[in-house]
Amino acid sequence: MDTDVLVIGGGNAALCAALMAREAGMRVLLLESAPRAWRGGNSAHTRNLRCMHDAPQDVLVEAYPEEEYWQDLLKVTGGLTDEHLARLVIRASSTCRDWMRRHGVHFQPPLSGALHVARTNAFFMGGGKALVNAYFRSAEALGVEIRYEAPVERLEIEDGRFVAAWCDGQRITAKSCVLAAGGFESNREWLREAWGQNARGEWPSDNFLIRGTAYNQGVLLRHMLEEHQADRIGDPTQAHMVAIDARAPLYDGGICTRIDCVSLGVVVNREAERFYDEGEDFWPKRYAIWGRLVAQQPGQVAYSIIDAKAIGRFMPPVFPGIVADSLPELGQKLGLDAGTFMQTMERYNAACRVGKFDHTALDDCHTEGVAPAKTHWARPIDTAPYYGYALRPGVTFTYLGLKVDDTAAVRFAGQASRNLFVAGEMMAGNVLGKGYTAGVGMSIGTAFGRIAGRNAALAAQGRPAVAGAVQD
Length: 472
Description:
InterPro entries: CobZ, FAD-dep_OxRdtase_2_FAD-bd, FAD-oxidoreductase_2, FAD/NAD-bd_sf, Succ_DH/fumarate_Rdtase_cat_sf. Keywords: FAD, Flavoprotein, Oxidoreductase, Plasmid. The chain contains twelve helices and 20 strands. Strands 1, 2, 5, 6, 7, 8, 19 and 20 form an eight-stranded mixed β-sheet that branches. By secondary structure, the chain is an alpha/beta fold.
């Protein structure tokens, strides 16, 4: 064999798997499709992971118990989640930080202010780039072999058992394998295929921007689903999709392109009409629905409108907003129909019932007599200067993936493979059927990356996989 455990991918889940397998004494080869400078996949753009805890901990305040975490996930997914696997992730999130620290990850003190997540999320010092760099350094120090610019085109699988991978014409054999090569969000043709054409013959997905890596082409995912008929899960149109600045680059814009002021104002489409409740819930629980909402609007564009009262209450974006001294001037600068825009704004302002405004709580500021309603944080937009941000759908990762059980094994016709495992975006759809809540993607990748790495090591030793999360 060329190696004991082959790991395909270079993000958080892949690195967790490689580190676990190497800690178990296995020879490990990791194949990263990107060049070294762009390593880490979408994990390089992250900031935190969502953590369960029953009492204040090192970098987390108060408590965030299992049941509350589960209810938050249940709400955003609308029930499209495997409760057993979701609770596995939730419980694993409470114990992983010490292991992460042993591999060089540092956490920053609890955050306060506009993010509302000091209780629920542990933030990496230096963000996701620092995290993946720490993991790569640890992997190299432990003796994991790493190859960059090494995309895998296909796998040899016999009777559900991994045999070999083909990379740049080379056949690589291993006793076991972990797939952690990401989704298909960077594959423009696959996005077209998934989203189709609208009634005008346009391709909505052509207007999508990709928040993360350009290297998640979904080649291995499609190969597994079509050539090997692996069990699948998820809707190809469901994704972690955020409303981002329309001026963002096509790839790798990351978190700084996100527009976080949606809940503090109103959002209108190209026809200058509102289309959804901007105050439905806290931003960390609802930010990832707005990309899909914008994707369903004409031209896949919308505009977030705020006034001076909102400034200082949200994370400022990298691009400044369009500024005006009056609402008519702002509508004109944004290219919106003046009459419709002013009618929309006047109706909203007149409908506001302002109570005790508190952007850190589900307050009683709401609208009456206007559709859609705004259920919290509704205040008239009436204080100059006014700001507008053009929005586009920003895709982070897709939810179509491989169905798994609590061993992280790939399944074929309902039967778990004995030596082929999957982690990260390639299986996140088991937990995320739709929707998102901040930090849960890294929780899934960390939990299942470690499970997959542990079980790949056991498979390489000829031993059966163990169900459940890794116990430190």
